[in-house]
Amino acid sequence: MRTDVKSALRTISLLELLSRPGAELTHTQIVECLDVPKSSLTPLLQTLVDHGYISRDRITHTYSLGEAIDHLMTPARHLIFLRERLAPVVIQLAEDTDETALFGIRQGLEVRVINMAQGNTRTPYQIHEGEHLPLKASSAGKTIWAHETRTVRVALFQAIEANEENSPSRAAFDRDMKDVAQRGIAIMRDKLAVGVTSVSTPLFTSDGRLLGALSVGLLSARYTEAMHEKIVSALQRAVTAAQERLA
């Protein structure tokens, strides 16, 4: 049976109250809105003010959200920005290849799908925005992994090695990552799902910072040499378009 912590619930209620548009409330107004004892609210407000999560206006004696909340929201705003800017790029990539296209970023040992679009040809493995794919079983994950710094690559390898019995040797892993980094393309066949192949390429910012990967997935039976060339060409155009939209 779950037991809620009263102080945590009050903190959540307080932050939700102050997150309303234009919310600048006095101590008394907050007490009335939340129906909490003044003696309980005072130390909570002071703690949040001290840590920057709430700001107190010394003239009006009103409380509002502080700068620390803005810092917490930065990653979320970044994802929203990426999703909005790259949506047309992923849609065009799906249209150019007539296959499933996506943009994903690394989160821990997984790839989070930020954008996804489907062409007319569907694969048996359906992917949705917000879904998390295994880093080592997706071409998007593989290409991101290969283009991380060496320190990050090794840390990820060690984390996966600790949880899996049949992980590759370190030497084989290094060769594989080097090959992907040199080609700029990662290919995974029948890993994420039987009968599905995916091809990915990394996406960097204009100053060389790794953002994530653009990827195209298709039925393995359709993955011919001609289709490979078509996908690689479409991915290259998508990278150029993405960098222009992110500039």
Alpha-carbon Rg, integer:
24 Å
- Widest sheet: strand order? 6-5-4-9-8-7
Which blocks of ≥5 consecutive residues have pLDDT under 50? none
- Number of DSSP strands? 9
Please trace the helix and strand order, writing H or E for each element: HEHHEEHEEEHHHEEEH
Largest sheet: 6 strands, antiparallel
CATH architecture descriptor text of the largest domain: 2-Layer Sandwich
CATH-assigned homologous superfamily of the largest domain: GAF domain
CATH fold call of the largest domain: Beta-Lactamase
Shape descriptor: elongated
Q: In total, how many domains does the architecture comprise?
A: 2
Topology:
Layout: H1 6-18, E1 25-26, H2 27-34, H3 38-50, E2 54-56, E3 62-65, H4 67-97, E4 100-107, E5 110-117, E6 132-134, H5 139-147, H6 150-163, H7 170-183, E7 186-189, E8 196-204, E9 210-219, H8 225-246
Antiparallel strand pairs: 1-3, 2-3, 4-5, 4-9, 5-6, 7-8, 8-9
Write a structural description.
By secondary structure, the chain is α+β, with helices and mostly antiparallel strands. It is 50% helix and 21% strand. It has two domains: 4-64, Arc Repressor Mutant, subunit A; 71-244, GAF domain (Beta-Lactamase). The protein has a six-stranded antiparallel sheet with strand order 6-5-4-9-8-7, with helices on both faces. The protein has a three-stranded antiparallel sheet with strand order 1-3-2. A hairpin with a 5-residue loop joins strand 2 (54-56) and strand 3. The protein is elongated, with a radius of gyration of 24 Å. It starts with 5 loop residues before the first helix and ends with a helix. The model has no long low-confidence stretch (mean pLDDT 90).
